[in-house]
Amino acid sequence: MRILDEKNEEIWDSIASSFDKTRGKPWKICIEFIEKLPKDSVIVDLGCGNGRHLIPCAQHCIKAVGLDISLNLLKIIQNKTIGMKNIELIHGNLKDLPFRDDSFDAILYIASLHNIKYRENRIKSLREVKRIMKKNGIGLISVWSRWQDRFQNFFIKNLFKTSRVEEFGDITIYWKQNGLNIPRFYHLYSKREFKRDILEAGLYIEEIKSVRLNSRYHSDNYFAYIRKI
Amino acid sequence: MDILCCPVCKGELELKVDKKEGDDILEGKLICHKCNVKYPIQEGIPDLLPRNI
């Protein structure tokens, strides 16, 4: 029997096609990272979603591997990439990566780490990232930030809660689809915590950027440029 | 294929091909003998999610 991963599999499978419709454009910061890679790079996109960054990876690099928890999202990519021979799609989870040690020159891990519940699991995932990277390999990891405009009030109120079962930063964010609200788990990061978790996994941080993509006042994403030393 | 391993024990996987189209493996299995698990490949996508043993 398969272990259902924090319901993430079920949730992302159910929203796959409407998610795909709203996630057409790749992020510029990711494209810049991909285009600077040597052409002979083997890259993996962890939590590749609908492939908006995986496809540019395959257009630029010699080989691109995409891993996602949602088979429905992977099938959406499969339909978009018929005839592209250098793409491999893997159905897997972010904590137990099915890749051998020292496999990749580069990794992309965009907006997925924050969907893993419990800090120990997020660190486990980052340790796995280090394991599968080649020595001197580089990566770009991004997470949503806790203090962005739309969630700020939730967390300010949450600061004063005395009893808390969840970790501070945990939040349920709903996906609206056909009149239904589908709950998705997020752990929204502070910049300090993001840095701490990456370092704890033994990865080297070259730079952390705070970026505003949709938020008006406060940065809504953190991007870490990492290296395996 | 040369970069894949068992998600649990990180050991080698044996590939069994059931259906092929050119170089693409459409249906088959990736077998971890150590964990005694067969990970299926369906419609060209390997399912390498950990199993509850």
Report the uncertain regions of chain B: none
The N- and C-terminal alpha carbons of chain B lie at a distance of 24 Å
Q: Any low-confidence stretches of chain A, pLDDT <50, length ≥5?
A: none
CATH level-1 class of chain A: Alpha Beta
Helix content of chain B: under 10%
- How big is the Rg of chain A? 17 Å
Helix-and-strand structural type of chain B:
mainly beta
Number of helices of chain A: 7
Strand order of the largest sheet of chain A: 3-2-1-4-5-9-8
Order of helices and strands of chain B: EEEE
User: Multimeric state of these chains?
Assistant: heterodimer
Largest interface: A-B, 26 and 19 residues
Strand order of the largest sheet of chain B: 1-2-3-4
Task: Note the overall shape of chain A.
Answer: globular
How many domain regions of chain A?
1
Task: Tell me the number of helical segments of chain B per DSSP (H or I, 4 or more residues long).
Answer: 0
- The CATH superfamily name of chain A is Vaccinia Virus protein VP39
Radius of gyration of chain B: 11 Å
